[in-house]
Amino acid sequence: MYDRLLVPTDGSTVADAAGETAVALARRVDAELHVLHVREPTERPVGAGDAPPTDAVEDGDEATATVAEMAADAGVETRTATLQERETVHQTILRYAADHDVECIVMGTHGRTGLDRFVLGSVAELTLRQSSIPVMTVHEDTVVDPSFDDVLVPTDGSSCAAAAADHAIDLARSTGATLHVINVVDSGAVWGGANVAMVLDALEEIGEQALDDVRTRAKAADVTAIEGAVLSGIPYRAIAEYAEESDVDCVVMGTHGRTGLDRYLLGSVTERVVRLSDVPVLSIREREAD
Description:
This protein has 290 residues and is an alpha/beta fold. The protein has helices at 13-29, 54-73, 89-99, 123-130, 159-175, 196-220, 235-245, 269-276, and strands at 4-8, 32-39, 78-84, 104-108, 135-138, 150-154, 178-185, 226-232, 250-254, 281-284.
């Protein structure tokens, strides 16, 4: 499924968690792992012909070496690189990914900002906003099962959910995982009036249709282990709770069809799942129209 993965690292605890996740995924899909450190500008300007401070080089080499050693222990082939930031950190990451045909980026929230600052300008947020390839996010408390035996994809029938479903199907097929497909009826959005029950029934029927569509595509792709359910509740909580109760190893989500990429981490369901989930979340950008 993937031939090349990229994990950026700054040597922080959360970056190490991302490194562990990237190594586990690379081993599972037999991919080459690229480990990248981006040196940010120092207090002393560094010109094009100037060498960066020795301690900055050593810090970058140590950060990449830590992940490379984990990968070597797991039998994963790696390539390491330390680059001087020329644009911004996230743009340097994305440029490296494009230059090396990387197919998925694995990263944590920025080590100096932490999870609470995830939506406020962090490198992770900016990478997610602009990446044309999937981005898997973790935080310090993320639990990684290297087997990736259970993959969850929520769907609402939108085009972005369909893109995520197709990617989840590919992941389940390549790893032999059970594919969990759920739709969450947002019961809190339906209130008042005598037709509440009728509206909820209609939404559940739409949810079942969305599930059937993904099931059909999964079966056509030779995914044999498929589970599904239409749930009711607050969407991001229901998704996180299902993932925990069903021992899911990875959640695959797209940007929400009603908000679009510009609103991707500003109150969206996906952003809240990233915050709550105890497992990696793989975010898929909606396909652009031809």
